[in-house]
Amino acid sequence: MENMSWRGVAAVLVSATCFGGTSILIKKAYTYGLTPVQVMFLQSWIASALLLAYNLAFNRSMFVIDPKTLGVLALQGLVGSLGTSLLYSYSLLYLPVSVAILLLYLYPGLVMGASAVFWHRRVSGREAGALLLTLMGTALASGIFSGIGPVAKTGILLGIGSALAYTVFNVVGELALADESPLRVMSFAQWFSSLGLLVYLREQALALPWQLASTWTIGLALATIASIAPFYLLLVGIKYLGADKAAILSTFELPMTFVLAALLLAEFPHWHEWLGGSLVLAGIVILNWRGKRVSLLE
Length: 298
What we know:
Blueprint: H1 2-30, H2 36-58, H3 67-91, H4 97-104, H5 107-118, H6 125-142, H7 150-176, H8 182-201, H9 213-241, H10 243-249, H11 253-265, H12 271-287
């Protein structure tokens, strides 16, 4: 069982690292003149095509699924996956990467609250302390204590919305994973997300510069690094750890995003953003601290 726990921890940390690179790729896509919905369409449909090809070739039993499970996965794909991607992408138009990602990471607290309400899970003192540090770090780094303008307010609202949508992804994902494999859950969530995005975009999808090599290059990078790998690994982590612990552990994305934004985008966080990120990282350490009588994931 402990090996399973470590496997879940490793999966979530690698997932968080991939997600850390997502913001960088989205910002890069914006330099090509793509809009947020176009970036999401490119990412989502290439990822869907890759998953469809794989499952048709190696796992055709994937497509035999009961209607109830299909409805659960539709909710996860349309609200959890598509909602998170769209709201977060739009928040990047108004906010620096470091602030947008910190607002997204309000979701561990929301997931923990949902777990306590729907599954009646007891929140340990260690988990509560980790959650408190995460919330304090997010609030400090977002800059809400120093005053914000109307543009930043729009970005902050979008960022909070992405946190709510990602909470749905995690909570519904844990429900689906009780009977389904991470690959099936991720595949159907991705396909429903793509269908919802097609309805949202309609003719705008045709306006994408499909003839450019840069479009396909950034699209493939987004599909693999920002969609398939991180969501699959996160679901593996949820399966082994539960949604609440996986959510807090995945805040490892925060320091990774800070470092990547500084190295690749020359976006250097302010002191309060670094301090906030440090508090969130401290929450991760507290959550996973191994004492003499405490296992890694009790």
